[in-house]
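Notebook B, p. 112. Complex prediction, attempt 2.
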Amino acid sequence: MSRTGGEKRRRSIVEEAIRCFGRDGYNATSLDTVAKAVGVRKQTLLYYFPNKDALLEACLTAAGATVGEAITVALEQKQTPETKAEAVVHAVFELAKEFPEFPMFVREASRLGPDAFDRFSKVLEPMRERAVAFLEAGMDEGNIRKQDPAMLLFTLYTAVIGYLTEASVLNAVVGPGKSRASLRRREKEVVSFVRAALAPPAA
Amino acid sequence: MSRTGGEKRRRSIVEEAIRCFGRDGYNATSLDTVAKAVGVRKQTLLYYFPNKDALLEACLTAAGATVGEAITVALEQKQTPETKAEAVVHAVFELAKEFPEFPMFVREASRLGPDAFDRFSKVLEPMRERAVAFLEAGMDEGNIRKQDPAMLLFTLYTAVIGYLTEASVLNAVVGPGKSRASLRRREKEVVSFVRAALAPPAA
DNA sequence: CTACTTGTCTACCAACCGGTAGAGGTGCAT
DNA sequence: ATGCACCTCTACCGGTTGGTAGACAAGTAG
């Protein structure tokens, strides 16, 4: 029919699959659902990917590359050590703004087990190492409160992903009185939280 | 056959369903899977609950009651204001220790949307209000850093649930070098994090 | 003994699942 | 024009899904 061309189609399949997997979960998403979102028949998916699992792997790799790229771009601007963490948070929130299902997909990746998450995070490995080194250096210089840097990184991760994915909880906790917190407000909250987590005990 | 009796059977169905829904997600769990876990045929489930959705509602209500009870018991012991938060964290971790799928089910509840999460959290509503009041009082007295108490509560929630559910991430971030962090160690990390989040800026 | 309630079961259904087989259309190189 | 690689499709398969219909066993009250 329309012959959209191979690589372009492949990318659009992966993008829609990430949306569906993030929204409904991998196991609860049928190939038909993804195909309908792309605007194509299920068998076209199976032409590009031998089976559902291969499609998932492609999504995991692509997602890792996407977030890696976003963070790299954010850190390319010359940053003072103080603003680095906030720049990363901002980049992730920007990504979530124009791709709301993305954070949910990341959480789904971790839910699917170590293998799936490793495939997602493999690209991010060097950035993780640099982040740990950055945190350790900051601790040695006294700019960051002394603690296990890996655990600190994990705590920051859960805070960011939590603010981005637990919308139901946020509404329930903040209560019906206040208007539902916008992404912008949540980013401010996360940033202030990150500052508190990094700040040394005495100012 | 064995006629285990109505209410007992009903409870065991709900418990196993929480396990399955937490482990695999609601949409990806079949009634047959739950039935097999209980040791009974699918139609027996449908005798107690008219359909899958009704079973989910029962699970949400039961889960809310369980965590509410655990927290209530933890706070019954006379606590100093300083140890209250840690007592709640400890109670939740104890619950997770002997019921590992429980935190995952809570996260699944939030993933299923506001209606589902409301059903879970309805029982917890008065405790939420008391917690906010407690935090506000602490802020007024200068024992807790001034911030939006509802947002603080949400941040604490995401931290606890994150440490309990994101095992894959934890292993990936902490790295293969160290042994995987035990629940006990994670509880210590969460508690120290909670302290940092509550602590006023100058000691 | 009989009638009724409660609980568990077998048998079945239409819809949907992931995946296979293969026809056919389109554009490009020869 | 012809062959071929690329892409999308229809048709189908065996297995699983949530759910219905109803048989049957066991306790219980009269």
